[in-house]
Amino acid sequence: MKKYLSTILLSIVFVSITCAQFKLPGYEVVTLDNGLTIYLMEKKDVPIISFSAVFDAGAIRDGEKNGLASFTAEALKFGTKNYTKNQIDSIFNFYGSSLNTYARLDYSGIYTQFMKDDLEKLLPVIKDVITNPTFPEDEIIKRKQRWIAELDQAKESPRQVIGAYYNKFLFADSPYGNPVDGIKKTIEQIDRIQISDFYLKNIRSESCAIAVVGDFNSDKMKSELKKLFSDWRVTVPRLIDDSRFKKQDLKESGVYLINKDNATETTFMIGGFGVPMSNKDQIQIDVINTILGGRFTSWLNDELRVNAGYTYGARSRFASYKTAGSFYISTFTATKNTGPAIDLAIKTYNRLFEKGIDEATLKSAKNYVKGQFPPEYETAGSLAGFLTLKYIYGLEDSYINDFEKTVDGMTIDGANEIINKYFPKDNLQFVLIGKADDIREIAKKYGKVIEKNISEDGF
What is the structure's pLDDT at 1? Predict the structure, then answer.
């Protein structure tokens, strides 16, 4: 009887969730006199607070020093005016938390989550990490040694690095071709002066947003953040040459063949340019991509994994940035299956253009993405992440509030228009990592081949 009642209750909960359209919880936006933007969202279901800060200091600002944004983001935790690195690590560890920094192409950031009762102990430390880093030389030297070793180690796993090769091949000299983690040569050259200079020019109050989501009182949190961050300096922003971001037409198909002598399989990506985050059809594009390669029962996974047995998994994705974007199909296969696997991936992709989407397939994808959407924003951490991305990319609340409406409004004709408008069809670009001697002739079938050895520095 208890099991039967539980099943009924779960069914009621599921129906209520699916019938009620998911909406973004209310929040407050505060802008300090120094330009710092603060988002406050109360969420009192659990006694946890999530803190997220983002800076206009991504890898596109690296210049010739690839990896500088990423190194600077990590170096924020190396020590401050009031805390050593060990003290920072110990304090967060004592309260069962951790302080995480990171860098992406468009931005860098810092994130942590902790119990609400620990706010007064941890918030001053977070503030010091953001506004008073000292970048001690000894910590930089130690991290450089490990970083260089990690770059070598990463190349032992083609799936870990193929994305950097793909971006470099597609975007070439554009800042979006910058490898976020850098290369050995540039990491070796990074020093304290360069890190300090990058920090001062790019991590500034007027180009930063803080999002706090969780169990707190907004008035008290607002007062505390004003007290802590109001005196953070304002500096002259660093400008980027916008001409370097302009998309170049792909006039022919190309192949970037990365030789790995000991490889027994080929890892590959196929694609072209995608769309920026600001694209108004982003949601519809994601629905179509779900059909192609965005879920386990996608066309690509069915054909390459289930039916042909060429791989353990195949997928496709649109990676969107502030002023650019890419689309790619990715998978891996045994060296002997390289040609058949690539051919099947292309054949499956071309179904979008040759046959389009039918009603049953579209309905299935719409139901899937609507079911997956609410859990993506059910936690304080995920909501804090959305608020900071909202700041970086200028996203509207309607992305969440109108999501289901937008998905439900998709028609067959509209879906096929999306395919022809946004999915790259001609002059596809290919990146292959494998044993070149075994796949070189195969690679030539798909376009002009440029070859590089994976042991060489750079991408």
Answer: 42
Q: Which single residue is written with the structure tokens 């109001």?
A: 230
Whose CA is closest to 341, among 420, 430, 263? Answer: 430
Contacts 24+ apart (CB under 8 A), 381-384: 381/50, 381/52, 381/111, 381/113, 381/213, 383/24, 383/25, 383/41, 383/43, 383/50, 383/211, 383/213, 384/39, 384/41, 384/50, 384/51, 384/52, 384/111, 384/211, 384/212, 384/213
Contact in structure between 276 and 322 (CB atoms under 8 Å) = yes
The pLDDT tens digits for 300-350 are 999 999 999 999 999 999 999 999 999 999 999 999 999 999 999 999 999
- Taking the C-alpha atoms of residue 422 and residue 282, their distance in angstroms, rounded to an integer, is 10
| DSSP-based three-state secondary structure for 257 | strand
Q: Which residue has the tokens 């069914």?
A: 11
pLDDT digits (tens, 9 = 90+) for 423-457: 999 999 999 999 999 999 999 999 999 999 999 99
Amino acid identity of residue 61, one-letter, is R
**CA–centroid distance for 109 within its chain:** 12
Separation of alpha carbons 325 and 279, rounded Å: 10
Q: What share of the chain is helix, strand, coil (3-state, %, to 5)?
A: 50, 20, 30
Q: How far apart are CA 398 and CA 267, in angstroms?
A: 38
pTM: 0.92
Residue with tokens 């953040």: 225
Cα–Cα dist 289/297, whole Å: 12
CA distance 381 to 52: 8
Mean pLDDT score across all residues of the chain: 93
> CA-to-CA distance for 331 and 52, rounded, in angstroms?
33
pLDDT score, position 16: 36
As a whole number of angstroms, the longest Cα–Cα distance in the chain is 70
Distance CA 57, CA 225 (A): 22
* Phi, psi angles (nearest 5°) of residue 303: -75, -50
